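Entry 12.
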Amino acid sequence: MAAKVFIDGEAGTTGLQIRERLVGREDIDLLSIEPARRKDADARAELLNLADAVILCLPDEAAREAVSLVESETTRIIDASTAYRVAEGWAYGFAEMARGAQRDAIRNAKSVSNPGCYPTGFIALVQPLVAAGVISADWPVTVNAVSGYSGGGKSMIAEFEEGESPDPYRIYATALGHKHVPEMQKHAGLTVPPLFTPSVGNFAQGMIVEVPLQLFAMPGKPTLDDVQAAIEDAFAGERFVTVATRAEAHATKKLEPEAFNNTNRMKLWVFGDPARGQARLVAQLDNLGKGASGAAVQNLNLMLGLDEAAGL
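Predicted 3D structure (tokens):
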């Protein structure tokens, strides 16, 4: 019997892409709400409690409201907002994290918080290094990143696509209080918050996340080989997260943020200069793919006991 799935917020950017990945699947029975009733709490509550699994593609407060409407003991929840990413009792939905051990937590969870796009790249680069002792948990890590404007939601999409003179590139969160920072710190295993410097470019989808490291200044003075080995070991055998070899990284002179658009893939790179003791770690992913809708579908598949790659 096909699992009943309801996407609350299916008209938004992430919801639309999740629906595209699910529609037509024989193992999924998509439940939909009439457009005129999308803000009707009673109508939403009915579907939230009828579904085997719900995916919330809503702002934080609306996501909290939706969770409060779920009374069924059998309804399982995936929340794509930031509301529960560091909350107790919620599994973190990055299946490949911690050598894939996170998969069991996702499979068995009633509630899963879908990772943010920036944190997905950052955690993939940093968590293996902290776990392996290459980076100490209290090391002051910096993360620089650029995303396509679709990550800013409908208002930013309209600004870039309908505005007369949108910026080719801009930085933001200059007060250093971005809502992704607690998520990055917790799931990377850090005891201090990273310094996060996000930006947005004039392209719709795609993302590059960078973590520069002054290896020569770190305790133990880890080498590029240490960094490469830890990241390769963390994601060995993974389908959606791959690691470039040192030879591939050495031969690569540029990277495009849109390289993995419309996929659930992420590629990790270790660039560096051994003589200077410096490294430049890079993650390439689609902010709406592995950074949002693709990850949500992957988590849904795991929770429902389906093929993890179905629809991806």
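Annotation: Residues 268 and 283 are 5 Å apart (CA to CA). Residues 3-115+292-303 form a domain with the Rossmann fold fold (CATH 3.40.50.720).
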